[in-house]
Design a protein that fits this description.
The chain has 14 helices and twelve strands. It is α/β, with parallel strands linked by helices and 348 residues long. The strands form four sheets. The chain has a five-stranded parallel beta sheet, with helices on both faces. Helix 4 packs parallel to helix 9, helix 5 packs across helix 9 and helix 6 crosses helix 7.
């Protein structure tokens, strides 16, 4: 019996030693794998974990090997792309949107926000990436409000600055869902509270690099079981490209219209300028609703930055093959279009 107990203790000690060793090795190598980590939010449904670092990867092997960090607000950090003097930046550029703005599929330098930061650094403009996966204008309006309230430079963010809002097709459906969940909190502010909490495994993955590695292995096995060859339809653009008219009714667009109007008014009240743009769906994968966003911008008297024609003309150059998002070249193209549309005082 004593020998059995000793063997069990030795086995337990060996197991703990291996687990701790693996965790320390992964931390030393900075291999905390993740994809798009999100936590529930009591005010804007979901948000990135704060001060979080991870190694990005694609289950289809389309990207990976670069590190992504979030700051104390949960926004993607652009640290290292620009150094400002002690007095701080002269102006601010805030990017609103979903995963296309978040840009977790590309490195900091290759993302839309990173490209703009590098271009505008010498002008003393600080770029803030407020993009979060699955955000629509209803949540982005709350995101902008809370960022102003929490940031030490609060009012200065909009005074003389610019807010660029990059939209995507699923924003219309997202606003219909999130809009129906809007409630007023104790301060009289509109919020969308998540009804879910992180599972025990998700909580463990927030602190353990080993748990993230095991989760990646599990997802990879599932992906290998589902992987298929790219079809001819995916290779060729065309058929899915919609016309120049919005294919949604006024009622369907109303939640998005209200949210965009609220952002427009908030930015104007803060002394800033508001621009809207939209990335169309990859035409190899489905039709797009970009005309709806151009229509809304016109109705709201907000400048609109078109980027659809070139993206639709050669999607193979700008989008990943499997994933729906823009590849590094697509991010650079989008950043170039936005840069050209910025007010002259911001670019010079």
């Amino acid at each position: 019996m004593q020998a059995l107990r000793a063997n069990l203790l030795l086995l337990l000690f060996s197991l703990v030693f291996c687990l701790v060793g693996a965790e320390l090795a992964l931390r030393f190598l900075r291999l905390g794998f993740n994809n798009a980590p999100l936590n529930p939010s009591a005010t804007r449904h979901h948000q990135h974990p704060t001060n979080y670092t991870f190694q990005a990867y694609s289950l289809q092997d389309e990207w990976g090997g670069f590190e992504i960090q979030t700051d104390r607000f949960g926004n993607r950090s652009l640290k290292g792309l620009c150094e400002f003097p002690a007095a701080g930046p002269k102006r601010h550029l805030l990017l609103l949107g979903d995963s296309f703005v978040e840009g977790f599929q590309v490195s900091d330098a290759d993302s839309i926000a990173g490209q703009l930061q590098q271009q505008l650094c010498r002008e003393g403009v600080a770029v803030h990436n407020l993009g979060v996966s699955s955000y629509s204008p209803v949540l982005s309006e709350i995101q902008l409000r809370e960022y102003q309230q929490q940031h030490p430079q609060g009012p200065e963010l909009l005074a003389g600055g610019v807010v660029v809002h990059l939209l995507y097709d699923n924003d219309i459906g997202g606003d219909q869902g999130y809009g129906s969940q809007l409630k007023t909190d104790s301060n009289g502010e509109l919020v969308v509270s998540s009804e879910t909490q992180l599972s025990p495994l998700e909580r463990l993955a927030r602190v353990s690099y080993l748990a993230r590695l095991l989760r990646r292995a599990q997802l990879t096995v599932i992906e290998l079981g589902h992987r298929q060859e790219i079809t001819t339809a995916q290779k060729s653009p065309a058929a899915a490209i919609a016309g120049d008219q919005c294919q949604r009714s006024a009622a369907e667009l109303e939640p998005t219209r209200r949210a965009l109007a609220a952002i427009r008014d908030r930015v104007a009240a803060g002394g800033g300028r508001y621009l809207i743009s939209a990335v169309p769906s990859d035409p190899r994968k489905g039709p797009h609703l970009e005309p709806c966003f151009a229509q809304l911008a016109q109705e709201l008297d907000v400048p609109y930055v078109p980027m659809a024609p070139e993206l639709l003309r050669q999607p193979q150059a700008f989008y990943f093959t499997h994933d729906i998002h823009l590849n590094p070249q697509g991010n650079r193209y989008a950043a170039e279009q936005l840069l050209q549309a910025l007010p002259g005082e911001v670019r010079s």
